[in-house]
Amino acid sequence: MPEKLKIVHYLNQFFGQIGGEDSAYQEPVYKKGPIGPGNFLNAELKNADIIGTIICGDNYSAEKIQNLISFVHQVIQNENPDILIAGPAFNSGRYGLACANICKSVKNSFNIVCLTGLYEENPAVDLFRSDIDILKTKSNAAGMKEAIQNISTVLSDFTKDDIVSEANRSLFFPKGKLKNVYAKNNAALRAIQILQSLLEEHEGTTEINFPNRSKQEKATMKKELSEAEIALVTDGGLVKPGNPDRLETRGASKFVVYDITKTEGLEKSQWSVVHEGYDNQSVLEDPDRLVPLDALRHFEKVGKIKKVHKHLISTTGVATALAVCKRLGREIGEFLIKHKVDAVILTST
Predict the structure, then answer these.
(1) What is the pLDDT of residue 214?
(2) Global confidence as pTM
(3) What CA–CA distance (Å, rounded) separates 247 from 244?
(4) For residue 8, what are the contacts with CB-CB under 8 A and spacing of at least 6?
(5) Could you say which of 3, 180, 332, 333 has the lowest number of CB atoms within 10 Å?
(6) At what angle are helices 144-156 and 37-44 packed, to 10 degrees?
(7) Per-residue DSSP letters for 145-186?
(8) Residues of the chain with pLDDT under 70
(9) How far, in Å, are 237, 253, 263, 266 from residue 297 at the CA level?
(10) In the sheet where 343-347 sits, what is the strand order?
(11) β-pairing, 113-118 with 83-90?
(12) Is residue 110 within 8 Å of 78, Cβ to Cβ?
C-alpha cells in the first residue's frame, strides 16, 4: 500500500475551537492531528492524513501577517508535509486573506501544493486567484460539508504537477491565465465569424473573458463646503442599545435611520454595535470614532460646513451579498437625494 500524503491544516480561532471574537488576537499555535473541520476532512480522505493543525486568531493574522507566515514556514520545515490546506474560509475577510497569504508564501518558498476554499465575494479571491489554487465554496459554514467533499475529490486526483485536473477544473476559480490551444480556424476567420454573429443575431461573443464591472461617473460637489449639508452613513453596525430595529449582525438586508438633530456627539451609553467580524471595543467606548459626529458638529459651528443632516444611517457590511449591497446603496442614495443632502461621509471598519 502506498504511503499516505501528509497534510498540514490551517484554521482560525473559531474553527480551531479556541474561541470566538474574544480570541481574535490568539497567537499562532501548532497542534498534532486534525481539529474541528479537519476531523471531517480526515474521514473523507483515502490517500492522505492531516498530521497537524496551525491555529491563529483573525485579528492577529490581519495585523501581524508576517509573524504568522514565519510561524507557518517553521512548521512546514519541521513536518515536511506534501500539502498545505488553509480553511476553507468561505466569505470571512480576515480569515480568507490569512489563508491566501499563507498559501502563496508556502507555495513560493517550499514548492508544495497549497489549497484554500473561498466564497466568490471574499476579497482574497480577486487578490490571489492568479497565484494560488482556490476552491469555490458557499458563503458560510453551512457549505462546509460540500467544501470538504470537494477538497477530498481534488486530493484523490492529486499529482505532484498540478492539483487542478481537467475533470475538477470547474471546482476552482479560474486564474485568468492564457493557455495555448489548437483552433480549427485562424484568428482572422474567427473574428469574421464573430462579426457575422453580431450583425445577424445582434449578439456578440468573445474569446476573452472580461470582468463584469459597471462604470460609475465621478461625483462632483456642486457647491462650496460652507454651503453643503453633510450626511453620515456607516456600515459598522452602529445601533441603539438593545438593537430595537433588529439590524442583522451579518448579511444585512436593510439599513436603519436615527434622528441626531439634537445630538452633539455620540455618547457611549446611547449606542451599541451589532456588527460581527471586528474588535468593536473602541467604538463601544467612543462611538464618535466610528461615526465622527462630534467633528462634524465642530465644523458646523465654525462654518466649515452649513449643517449636519438630521439622519444617521447605519447598516452592517460583513458577509452581505453583492446584489444586496447594490440594493442598499441605491436605497440609501435615494433617501439622501430625497432629503436634499449635498455630500456623504461613509465610514467603515
Answers:
(1) 66
(2) 0.62
(3) 8
(4) 50, 51, 52, 53, 54, 75, 76, 79, 81, 83, 84, 85
(5) 180
(6) 40
(7) HHHHHHHHHHHHT--SS-S--TTTGGGB-----------SS-
(8) 1-2, 157-162, 164-167, 177-178, 202-205, 208-214
(9) 22, 30, 9, 11
(10) 256-259, 307-314, 229-234, 343-347
(11) parallel
(12) no
A 10 A CB-CB count for 269 gives 8
Number of alpha carbons in the 13 Å side-chain half-sphere of residue 18: 21
- CA dist 163 and 107 (Å) reads 13
Burial class (CB in 10 A: 0-12, 13-18, 19+), 187: exposed
Amino acid at position 5, single letter: L
Go through 127-163 and write b for each residue having 16 or more CB atoms within 10 A of its CB, e for each that does not. Answer: ebbeebbbbbbbbebebbeebbebbbebbeebeeeeb
Q: Cα-atom radius of gyration of the chain, to the nearest Å? A: 25
Asked if 268 and 285 count as a contact pair (C-beta separation under 8 A), the reply is yes
CA distance 211 to 291: 34
pLDDT of residue 220: 84
Under 8 Å CB-to-CB from 328, ≥6 apart: which residues?
252, 254, 255, 315, 320
Helix (H, G, I), strand (E, B) or coil at 218: coil
Q: Is the peptide bond between 88 and the residue preceding it cis, with omega within 30 degrees of 0?
A: yes
Query: How far from chain centre, in Å, is Cα 190?
Result: 39
Choose among 58, 16, 116: nearest CA to 349: 58
Per-residue CA distances from 53 to 29, 128, 153 (Å): 8, 23, 21
Please check whether residue 37 is in contact with residue 116, taking contact to mean a CB–CB distance below 8 angstroms.
Answer: no
- Cell digits of residue 161: 504537477
Phi/psi of residue 136, nearest 5 degrees: -75, 135
pLDDT at 6: 94
189 three-class SS: helix
Closest CA to 310 of 241, 230, 222, 235: 230
CB-CB neighbours of 220 under 10 Å: 5
- 48-76 core/surface letters (b: 16 or more CB in 10 A; e: else): bebbbbbbbbbbbbbebbeebbebbeebb
